[in-house]
Amino acid sequence: MRVDVVSIFPEYLAPLDLSLIGRARARGVLRLAVHDLRTWTHDVHRTVDDTPYGGGPGMVMRPEPWGEALDALAPADAAPPRLLVPSPAGAPFSQAMAHELAAEEHLLFACGRYEGIDQRVLEHAATRMPVTEVSLGDYVLFGGEVAVLVILEAVTRLLPGVLGNAGSLDEESHAHGLLEAPVYTKPPSWRGHEVPEILRSGDHGRIARWRRDEALRRTAARRPDMLAALGEDLDKKDRAAL
Ligand SMILES: Nc1ncccc1[N+](=O)[O-]
User: Fold this and answer.
1) Looking at this predicted complex, what is its ipTM?
2) pTM
3) Is the distance from the beta carbon of residue 141 to the nearest atom of ligand 1 less than 6 Å?
């Protein structure tokens, strides 16, 4: 997978060289390039923003640098990338979207700052590539860079060969529409707190049932919205746990 990120703060993306993502890059599973938007400015001050039409506070990112950046990174003679624009006005990011993005050949992230990017940049890009405004949640960050770090971590760990133990993808939260069950390791007793006996029983059938029941109970307590979405998928044993 090829990933390009355009930002006026490329150093914000430095953590992408660490840990799993760093390994994925080293293995060639992920080809990541971070670009400074000011590369595509031509004035002495390398201006990327201006005052908003219609008035109002703050500044808006000018269309010209973005237009040239997208022309350079998504040339007309190549397969179009998927353009992702992190924004509080975007569609909610989810594990399902992470899986969708993990199947893409080329992701292109546009990190907005200030009050956002001139809307015509997205309109023009949409004439030649899929454009998705995506939100991490209902709060406002300074810009899209942190969101790109989150999205890329969620996507990269789904790529083949990145996670040492691919099995862990099966049981994690949101894998089956439920929150994951609690986890324990040695020692069996710690400051008066015991590991649930069943997990040390060696009875894998009962252990799997216990984990599903715990996942159901946690989801019911913390995310009733997720449980409601499962609706019909719950069988009699599941309902007995709630
Ligand atoms: N919440 C956000 N605030 C600013 C930029 C991007 C954002 N987001 O969630 O992707």
Assistant:
1) 0.98
2) 0.92
3) yes
